Amino acid sequence: MRALSRPVHRGQSEGCLGTGVGCHYEPMLVAFSITPLGVGESVGDLVAEAVRVVRASGLPNRTDAMFTTIEGEWDECFAVVKQAVEAVAKGAPRVSVSLKADVRPGVSGALTAKVEHIERALTE
């Protein structure tokens, strides 16, 4: 598992959101889907460009038929999403983005741990 590049802070400090959920440096999961619009029915090649950006980022990630999920710090995750959108936008006049984020202070490795927990429960 990749270590966070900055220390995890609690409460209000430089870079924190100020919302009570932690700060920009907390580990999080971001599941997102990028859809190129206005390019016809076949969008696989452009979606592959977004996935290429994600994989090159070095963040833990998983891609399935509906979403790509990444794990990292707030700024890292949203920088990757932005770069993936920009990669798709090079070949599409319009891009749709759907996002879901799980910010859980003090927890890292959730990308695999959540799935492993379910798999264990299914074997019991």
Please tell me about this protein's structure.
The protein has helices at about 45-55, 75-90, 110-124; strands at about 25-35, 60-65, 70-75, 95-105. With about 120 residues, the chain is of the alpha+beta class. It has a single domain (about 25-124), classed as Alpha-Beta Plaits (2-Layer Sandwich), CATH 3.30.70.930. A four-stranded antiparallel β-sheet has the order 2-3-1-4, with helices on one face. A hairpin with a 4-residue loop joins strand 2 and strand 3. Helix 1 (about 45-55) runs antiparallel to helix 2. The two termini are about 25 Å apart. This is UPF0045 protein. It comes from Paractinoplanes rishiriensis. One of its GO terms (cellular component) is cytosol. Pfam families: Thiamine_BP.
Any chance you could write out the topology, listing elements then pairs?
Elements: E1 27-37, H1 44-57, E2 61-63, E3 68-73, H2 74-89, E4 94-103, H3 110-123
Antiparallel strand pairs: 1-3, 1-4, 2-3
Task: Describe this protein with a few key phrases.
35% helix, 4 strands, 124 residues, Thiamine_BP, 4-stranded antiparallel beta sheet, alpha+beta, Alpha-Beta Plaits
* Total separate domains: 1
Helix content: 25-40%
Low-confidence stretches: 1-15
Determine the mean pLDDT.
85
Query: Number of helix segments?
Result: 3
CATH class: Alpha Beta
What is shown here, in short?
With 124 residues, this protein is α+β, with helices and mostly antiparallel strands. The protein contains three helices and four strands; from the N terminus they run E-H-E-E-H-E-H.
